[in-house]
Design brief:
Blueprint: H1 3-12, H2 22-27, E1 34-36, E2 39-41, H3 59-70, H4 74-86, H5 91-104, H6 113-125, H7 145-159, H8 166-176, H9 181-194, H10 199-212, H11 222-236, H12 241-244, H13 248-257, H14 261-277, H15 283-301, H16 305-316, H17 322-327, H18 332-339, H19 343-353, H20 361-372
Helix pairs in contact: 1-18, 3-5, 4-5, 5-6, 6-7, 7-8, 8-9, 9-10, 10-11, 11-13, 13-14, 13-15, 14-15, 15-16, 15-18, 16-19, 18-19, 19-20
Length: 373
C-alpha cells in the first residue's frame, strides 16, 4: 500500500454517524477539519438529537414551529415580539422567535441579545420543553462565553434537585453532551433510573457510547460498543415497529463493533426489510445505506471480500435522506476494503455518494484523487 493510500485509509476510517444539530457545533470546535497532504476530512461524531416527549407541545408541533421561525421575516419577528410582550407565556410564539434569532445570530454583526433573552427564559422557566434540549436554546462557549456560563448555571441548578424530572435531566444532558459528555452520560443515567421506560434517554446513552467506540484515528473499542448495544436494545424492546427504525442503524453498527456478528447480521437485514416496506419515506435512504454497510462489514469479517464490495456499492446507491445529505456517507466499510487494496470499488462508492452528498462533493473528489494516485 502506498503512503497516500495509507493516509486515505486512516482518514476514511473516521466513523460517519447520524448527525443532526451537533455536527455543526462539533465541526466548529475541537473536532474540526484535519488536513494532511491536501486531504480534508471533517470528523462527524454520533450524537443524534432525539425528540423527547414535550409536555406542552407535541414533537410535530415543535418541528412546525422551528420551520416557521426559521422562515420569519424581520416584520413577522417584530409582530411576534409585540405578541409576546402581551403574553409572555405563549410558548409557540417564543419558540418561533428563539429559532428566528438563533439563525440571525450567525451573522457577524447581529445583536445576539434577543436570542439570549428567549433561550434563558425557556431554560429558566420551562426546562421541560422539548425545544430546551435543542441547540437553539444553547450557546457556543467560544463565541458566547457569558451566555454559555449563564445557561450552564441554570441547568446545574435544575439538575441539582433530587426531584428533577427525567425530561429535564435529558434536556440538560443535551446541553452538556458536546463539551462535557461525562456529565451528559451521568444525567442520562439518572433519567433512566428515574424512569426505565424513558426510551429517548436510553437511545442517547447508546449514542454517547457509540461515539466513543471508535477512536479518533481508528481502533475499535468493543467493550464500549457492547455497552452502547445494551442501551439501544433496552430502548428497542419498548418501541413500536415504526419507532424501532429510528435506532436500527445505530443498533446494527453497535452490534458489529461489539463483535456480535449474529446480531449485526439480523439488524442489518431488518434495515433492508424496512427499506423495502417504506420506499416513499425519509427512513428509506438511511435503511438502504446503513443496512448494506453493516451487512458488508459482517461479510468482510467472514472473509467474503467480493460480497462485501457488492454491499458497499449498494449502500452508495441510496437515494439519500436529510441526515445523509447533510452529514455524508459512512466510510468504515470503504476503509476496510481500501486496506485490502480494493480501490476500484471504494472509488465507485465515493463517486456514487456524490449524488446525495452534494455539499461534500469537493471532499469526495479529493478523496478519490488521493486513492487514484
Amino acid at each position: 500500500m502506498t503512503s497516500v493510500e495509507m493516509i486515505a485509509t486512516r482518514y476514511l476510517g473516521s466513523y460517519s454517524c447520524l448527525l443532526r444539530e451537533a455536527t455543526t457545533a462539533l465541526s466548529r470546535k475541537s473536532f474540526g477539519p484535519l488536513r494532511r497532504n491536501g486531504f480534508l476530512f471533517v470528523i462527524w461524531c454520533c450524537s443524534g438529537l432525539a425528540g423527547q416527549a414535550c409536555l406542552a407541545l407535541g414533537a410535530s408541533d415543535v418541528n412546525a414551529l422551528i420551520r416557521e421561525g426559521r422562515a420569519f421575516t424581520p416584520e413577522q419577528a417584530q409582530k411576534a415580539t409585540a405578541e409576546l410582550d402581551r403574553s409572555p407565556d405563549d410558548l409557540s410564539v417564543r419558540t418561533r422567535l428563539l429559532v428566528y434569532h438563533w439563525f440571525k445570530r450567525r451573522g457577524s454583526n447581529y445583536d445576539m441579545s434577543q436570542h439570549r433573552l428567549h433561550a434563558m427564559w425557556i431554560i429558566r422557566n420551562r426546562p421541560d420543553l422539548e425545544i430546551a434540549g435543542y441547540s437553539y436554546a444553547g450557546f457556543y462557549a467560544v463565541k458566547a462565553p457569558d451566555a454559555h456560563a449563564e445557561a450552564k448555571g441554570l441547568w446545574l441548578e435544575h439538575v441539582s434537585k433530587e426531584t428533577a424530572k427525567p425530561v429535564v435531566l435529558h434536556n440538560a444532558a443535551h446541553f452538556f453532551r458536546i463539551f462535557n459528555p461525562v456529565v451528559a452520560s451521568e444525567l442520562l443515567e439518572r433519567a433512566v433510573e428515574s424512569d426505565p421506560t424513558y426510551t429517548h434517554a436510553l437511545e442517547d446513552l447508546g449514542r454517547l457510547h457509540l461515539s466513543k467506540a471508535i477512536g479518533l484515528f481508528g481502533g475499535i473499542k468493543s467493550d464500549i460498543a457492547q455497552v452502547a448495544m445494551s442501551k439501544f436494545e433496552a430502548a428497542f424492546a419498548q418501541l413500536t415497529a415504526t419507532e424501532r427504525l429510528r435506532i436500527l442503524p445505530d443498533l446494527a453498527r453497535a452490534a458489529y463493533l461489539a463483535g456480535d456478528l449474529t446480531k449485526a447480521q439480523r439488524y442489518g437485514e431488518n434495515l433492508l426489510e424496512a427499506a423495502v416496506h417504506r420506499p416513499a419515506t425519509l427512513d428509506h435512504g438511511v435503511a438502504v445505506h446503513h443496512g448494506n454497510l453493516v451487512l458488508g462489514l459482517v461479510a468482510l469479517t467472514k472473509g467474503e471480500v467480493e460480497r462485501a464490495e457488492e454491499y458497499l456499492l449498494k449502500a452508495g446507491k441510496t437515494p439519500g435522506s436529510p441526515e445523509l445529505d447533510y452529514a455524508g456517507p459512512n466510510v468504515l466499510l470503504a476503509q476496510e476494503l481500501l486496506k485490502r487494496g480494493r480501490r476500484k470499488a471504494v472509488i465507485e462508492y465515493l463517486d456514487n455518494c456524490r449524488r446525495f452528498w452534494k455539499r461534500g462533493g469537493g471532499k469526495l473528489r479529493k478523496w478519490i484523487k488521493i486513492i487514484e494516485e
